Amino acid sequence: MRAPSTRRIMAGAQKQARKEIRAQFKVVADTVRGAVIRAAGSEDQPVPYSPRNDAAEKRVRSVARHAIDAMFLGVGGYPFADDGRTALAPYPLILNRAIVRVTAQHIYAHRDWMQRNIPADVYEWLSNQRVVVTQQENPYLRRDGESIEAHRDRLANLRIFQPNPLAQYESAHTWVDPRGYQLSDRIWNTANNTRQKLDEILRDGIRNGIGAKRLADLVEQFLLPGRAALRTSKPYGTDASYDAMRLARTEIARAANQAALISAQLNPYVDRVEWARSPNGDPTCPICPQHATLGINGERLRDPYPVMGSPSPPAHPHCMCHVRPLVAEDAAAVTEQLRAVMQEAEELLIQPVLTPAQADVLIYELLGRALSTLLPQVA
Question: By three-state DSSP, how is residue 314 classified?
Answer without folding.
Answer: coil
